[in-house]
Amino acid sequence: MDEKKLLFNNKQDKRLQILAAAAKIFTAKGFHPAKVEEIATAAGVGKGTVYEYFSSKTEVFREMLSYLLEFYKQYFEERLDRSKSVREQLFTIMSTHAHFLKNNKDLFSLILEPHQPIDEETQAWLVAERREILDGLAQIIQTGIERGELKPVNTFVAAQILLGTMISFSGEVFLAKKDWDYQEIINHILEILFQGLEC
Amino acid sequence: MDEKKLLFNNKQDKRLQILAAAAKIFTAKGFHPAKVEEIATAAGVGKGTVYEYFSSKTEVFREMLSYLLEFYKQYFEERLDRSKSVREQLFTIMSTHAHFLKNNKDLFSLILEPHQPIDEETQAWLVAERREILDGLAQIIQTGIERGELKPVNTFVAAQILLGTMISFSGEVFLAKKDWDYQEIINHILEILFQGLEC
Amino acid sequence: MDEKKLLFNNKQDKRLQILAAAAKIFTAKGFHPAKVEEIATAAGVGKGTVYEYFSSKTEVFREMLSYLLEFYKQYFEERLDRSKSVREQLFTIMSTHAHFLKNNKDLFSLILEPHQPIDEETQAWLVAERREILDGLAQIIQTGIERGELKPVNTFVAAQILLGTMISFSGEVFLAKKDWDYQEIINHILEILFQGLEC
Amino acid sequence: MDEKKLLFNNKQDKRLQILAAAAKIFTAKGFHPAKVEEIATAAGVGKGTVYEYFSSKTEVFREMLSYLLEFYKQYFEERLDRSKSVREQLFTIMSTHAHFLKNNKDLFSLILEPHQPIDEETQAWLVAERREILDGLAQIIQTGIERGELKPVNTFVAAQILLGTMISFSGEVFLAKKDWDYQEIINHILEILFQGLEC
DNA sequence: GATGAATGAGAATTCATTCAT
DNA sequence: GATGAATGAATTCTCATTCAT
């Protein structure tokens, strides 16, 4: 099953065709170097058609991120079983994240990083989305503490560590090496995060 | 002691004046939205003068990053005492990183993140620099393992966790809150990383 | 009785609906700023339908002016009684003109002024129409002279004065003030034109 | 002595070169059909240079009109002798107007007519300028009445007649016929306006 | 060396017109 | 006939770069 297909496959809907093309081009080049005409061509439509569906290049960008992020978040909801142990949940999260990246190459860099400045509004929205994701992670940690699975650590700090680790690995490992065994990497990560570095 | 001064203080040297202004403007706006004229004005020189010292806007960007990165790396060399314990060294690294950020606000986002794409060459160079930093961290971990301070973990994975955590906190904590007690945050972080999450 | 109704009331005829909408929109915004889609919407038809009845935006404009002008000229023919005195005829003309304007607000500016250039052909046609109107006025003056009502003035010059006065008052007085007593104004005008300024 | 030269001859001043070219192009084609590049070429400068001196096409238009109007108004101030009889003054005004038109062909149509809509602000400004000109004419009439030269007519109505006549003749006579004896025409006009049409 | 006026390639956006349904 | 989604030519404006002073 290919998520990219799931994500943007409805050929009937030109809006989605354009968003899919936008994701590809924006991801490869960033906001400013990406040209509207290029996106239009990649979407197989005329330049003017982009403006039938979106009022500006900025709106295309914003809508594309929004769509992607919804998809990303839903992706986790479907896979996450909160009755399992925290360690198992985190394994699922990292694994799902890696899987998502494999199928939506590079797209991730557009979501969780403090970005190339487009405009204040988009920036603020991205920061808020990031915060929401952090809160979700912190909540899982908190549950683990309450269940007695984890030490009573600062949940916000722990969430930051988790997210930072995921982002750091995103570019470096998951994307760089085509056929990396990410399950093993994730086990390494969780080993360190759960048992600690110290002897 | 103000690092910004140290970093770009030679008023005689127009080249440095321009790099200092470039750091300020590029940091605030990103590569594309930053205008050469703006940088020139901020540097107190004429627009044409920028082209006396650099062949293009891209070169200004690249040189600025390079200069900044050298400074950043040297900053650590001066402060890092490899005879101390790994935990102490990591505390120094994180603390120095936070301190650097405080004094060179936002500059960091230009250094260690997979960037807004300028051009292939700059991109590749940044990836290499990032790798070098990771190697430095991995080396410290390795030393810790050899000395018996740390468990025999995968050093590359540990380095990624450390760097990811630093980056994640950079935007979120160090920069957002003006007068945050980062020493305490760093202790939280190291507590988790050394003792682990698990009970 | 509402002339606007008379002018464009045949709801069955889409062509007239479009011309009516065109008159409204072109009048309010001028040729270039008026959008075909806007006219179509105002006419209650689809954009494509406009092109079923007219070959281009320019043709819509030309046809609209032509229709309007025919209506305008016929308007006078119906009201003008050439057996009356010239002064009475001119009063009727000015009064009818004012009345027409009240009911077809702003439309007039589209007719008698040297226009925003659409194309050579339309321009030339408008000049010819204007000339025809001048000739009509000159003819009335000529009749007055022959009847001994008027001094033997240059009829072309007199016609220009009359038309210029009407145009000048069109924008200034008739349209600007909603409920102006134009009968009184016209009497002032004719007083000056017939008795002269001089003591 | 050539007024066009006086009007826009300072080759040193690129701003004026651009305004001169703008007057020529806008006059020939109207606001919308005139292209910025065309104006630039006519001014002998690059497209970008226009934007060094003006912030937008609209500003070029506005500035051009403003400059022209100042010149036009000053043109009269220099030629008008208020101690002379009103009839002589009006002869001077019409004659000067005709002369100005001869030397600044077509430019006039840009000044005193209710225009092709550019934007609200420019429109309002033009209306105000027109009003000012009308007030000046009314003032001359008023003086004539006070001096006993003229009948006690409504000065505003008389001013409208005068201005309407001038505008009407502008397009029709002064500009159309290259070598028309406008002095004779003006005498015809004043004859009618002063002695009246009636026997 | 230093400057900033001049430039024109390039980009976002608009909108008259077409044409498949 | 009627429609409006699709289109791309055309236009305004930006800005990195050049070069005469």
Characterization of this structure:
4 copies of one chain form a homotetramer. By secondary structure, the first copy, chain A, is mainly α. Chain A has 2 domains: 1-57, Arc Repressor Mutant, subunit A, CATH 1.10.10.60; 80-195, Tetracycline Repressor, domain 2 (Orthogonal Bundle), CATH 1.10.357.10. Chain A is 72% helix and 0% strand. Chain A is built from 10 helices and no strands. Chain D binds a DNA duplex (21 and 21 nucleotides) through residues 14, 35-37, 45-52, 55-57.
Task: Give the key terms.
mainly alpha, Tetracycline Repressor, domain 2, DNA-binding, 72% helix, Arc Repressor Mutant, subunit A, 10 helices, homotetramer, 0% strand
What's the number of helices of chain A?
10
Residues in β-strands, percent of chain A: under 5%
CATH third-level topology of the largest domain in chain A? Tetracycline Repressor, domain 2
Distance between the termini of chain A: 43 Å
Mean of residue pLDDT values of chain A: 83
Instruction: Give the low-confidence spans of chain A.
Output: none
Number of domains of chain A: 2
Give the proportion of residues in helices of chain A.
over 70%
- CATH level 1 class label of the largest domain in chain A: Mainly Alpha
Main sheet specs of chain A: none
Please name the two chains that share the biggest interface, counting residues whose Cβ lies under 8 Å from a Cβ on the partner chain. Answer: A-B, 49 and 48 residues
User: What structural category arises from helix and sheet content of chain A?
Assistant: mainly alpha
Number of strands of chain A: 0
Looking at the chains present, what oligomeric state does this protein adopt?
homotetramer
Order of helices and strands of chain A: HHHHHHHHHH
- Reported CATH architecture of the largest domain in chain A: Orthogonal Bundle
* Rg for CA atoms of chain A: 18 Å
Corresponding CATH superfamily of the largest domain in chain A:
Tetracycline Repressor, domain 2
